Amino acid sequence: MNRAARLIRGLSRRDRITPALIQLHWLPIKARIVYRQCVMVHQALNFGKPVYMRDMLLYFHVDTNVELRHSSEVNRLMEPRFRRECGKRAFANSAPRLYNNLPSFVRAAETAALFKKRLKTHLFTLSYDIIKDVMRPSFRL
Length: 141
Prior knowledge:
50% of the residues lie in helices and 3% in strands.
C-alpha cells in the first residue's frame, strides 16, 4: 500500500508516507479490516446475505421494564462471551463488538452505499490526526 502511494504521488523512499495516505484518503490496514467486518455485518443484517453470517448475529434486547442507557440504542447486537484471548478475534465475537462501537448515525444508514461512506469517514477520522499529519497509535501495525 505504501509503495502504491509513493508511486501515485511520486515520492522518494525517504519522504513521509502518512501525508500521502491522507491525501489519497486511504485507510490503514487495521482500519480496512474493521471496515470489511462492519460492511459484512451490515449486509448480513439488512439484506440477509450470507445466511450463515446472519444466523451468527443476534439483536440485543432487554427483558425488563427498567429503562437502561444501552437499551434505547437501535441496531445493537449481542456480544458473545469468550474464554480465551484468541477467541475475541473470531468473527462471531469481534464483528458484533466492532459494529456496536460504531456511532448510531453510521449504523442507521438506510442503503449500503451510505453506510460505506459514513463508515469510511468515521474510520478515517479515527485513524489519522489530520492537523499533525500523523497516524494515530491505535491503528499502527
